[in-house]
């Protein structure tokens, strides 16, 4: 009996007919919308994929293997995936290649009545399968909204900007031309304080441009990192000279206030970032451990990039991405001046932070998401001054400059001291 045959026979006895893997796929946008509404019936499955040639586009459906193909993948991977879909009665939702891992991934909907954990256990023993996991949900780490000389009128109201001595640090560096990738929700890229600040944006969730521009969380994070300075309005970002790239991988569900992401959208975003020259990646979000996402993040770290993430609300350094070794985890100041972050996590302002909001507005936001954004901007200040620094050097400077909250001015002065010592050796 072939691998998994006993499982299929037991599951579908009496059903009469298995679902076909060769049926015409539904509209991709509608399919991905179903995934976002309820991920509990979906799995991510990957097989070895010896690439022949491939484009940089991600999120292409497996059905694209027809002529003319949108990308060309080894026939073995295509045949293997089609065979698995047929044998396990899986229905394809979407697929995409990950050339950096040598894999082809497909999100499948599991059959009606199947138990996802049991099915994944069977698939994990199938020698053709390189990776199988649940399509998991993640969320941004924010809380509900509460109540140098710059000509920006609200700069003195920026608690985080003032507490980290960012204005003083800007006497030395504004993060000029350092590339920062922000994986988040969409954002009001047309906000007056973001004009000329964003090099590119990608929507990896849907094609809803109106919703993209109204997304709050990404707007808040971008504002803290890189709002324009000395434009006579609003606020100033931690790194007003940095170049920003936004990847929308999270969305707001119809019910509830928190933004959500899943394994599929986050993987697409990480693949795109791998193909970019962004040196800093801000991920103000988190969720359970995720094997596929861990592998992609490991690729970014191996390339010497620095990944900044927000401390989860349970303050446990576990899950994705906070549990991945090498990631910079940032928590926010606690109530009454108590510092919340445990262990090796950094601490930055995160409560009642004045930042940008959709519609060209400004308001206060709270959460470790905001704390992480402060650190991403601070790292850009350092790398702009000393691009040859390794990630470990950056982490050492940040740790030595924290009192215990990160301090931009102190970090730049520590960098100068290191440079002077190096010259005198």
TrEMBL record:
It comes from the Bacteria. The active site is at residues 184, 217, 369. The keyword Hydrolase applies. Residues 1-29 form the signal peptide. Transmembrane segments: none annotated. Coiled coil: none annotated. Keywords: Hydrolase, Protease, Serine protease, Signal. Pfam families: Peptidase_S8. Residues 175-405 form the Peptidase S8/S53 domain. Belongs to the peptidase S8 family. This is Peptidase S8/S53 domain-containing protein.
């Amino acid at each position: 009996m072939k691998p998994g045959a006993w499982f299929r026979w037991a599951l579908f006895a009496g059903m009469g007919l298995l679902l076909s893997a060769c049926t015409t796929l539904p509209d991709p946008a509608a399919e991905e919308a179903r995934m976002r509404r309820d991920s509990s019936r979906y799995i991510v499955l990957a097989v070895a994929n010896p690439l022949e040639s491939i484009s940089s586009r991600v999120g292409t459906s497996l059905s694209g293997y027809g002529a003319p193909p949108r990308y060309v993948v080894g026939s073995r991977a295509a045949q293997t995936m089609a065979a698995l879909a047929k044998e396990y009665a899986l229905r394809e939702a979407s697929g995409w290649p990950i050339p950096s891992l040598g894999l082809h991934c497909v999100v499948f909907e599991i059959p009606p009545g199947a138990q996802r954990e049991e099915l994944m256990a069977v698939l994990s023993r199938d020698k053709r399968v390189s990776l199988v996991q649940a399509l998991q949900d993640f969320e941004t780490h924010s809380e509900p909204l509460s109540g140098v000389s710059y000509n920006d009128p609200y700069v003195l109201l920026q608690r985080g900007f003032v507490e980290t001595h960012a204005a003083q640090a800007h006497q030395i560096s504004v993060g000029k031309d350092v590339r920062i990738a922000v994986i988040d929700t969409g954002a009001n890229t047309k906000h007056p304080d973001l004009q000329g600040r964003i090099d590119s944006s990608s929507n990896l969730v849907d094609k809803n441009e109106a919703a993209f521009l109204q997304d709050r969380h990404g707007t808040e994070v971008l504002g803290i990192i890189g709002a324009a300075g000395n434009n006579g309005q609003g606020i100033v970002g931690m790194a007003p000279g940095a170049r920003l790239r936004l990847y929308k991988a999270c969305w707001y569900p119809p019910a509830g206030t928190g933004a959500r992401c899943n394994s599929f959208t986050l993987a697409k975003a990480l693949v795109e970032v791998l193909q970019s020259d962004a040196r800093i990646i801000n991920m103000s979000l988190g969720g359970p451990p995720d094997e596929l996402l861990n592998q992609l993040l490991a690729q970014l770290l191996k390339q010497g990039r620095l990944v900044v993430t927000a401390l989860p609300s349970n303050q446990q350094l576990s899950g994705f991405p906070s549990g991945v070794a090498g990631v910079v985890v940032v928590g926010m100041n606690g109530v009454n001046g108590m510092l919340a972050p445990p262990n090796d996590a950094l601490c930055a302002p995160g409560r009642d932070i004045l930042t940008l909001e959709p519609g060209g507005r400004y308001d206060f936001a709270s959460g470790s998401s905001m704390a992480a954004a402060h650190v991403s901007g601070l790292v850009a200040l350092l790398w702009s001054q000393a691009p040859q620094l390794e990630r470990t050097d950056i982490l050492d400077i940040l740790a030595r400059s924290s009192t215990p909250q990160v301090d931009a001015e102190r970090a730049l002065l520590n960098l100068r001291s290191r440079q002077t010592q190096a010259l005198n050796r």
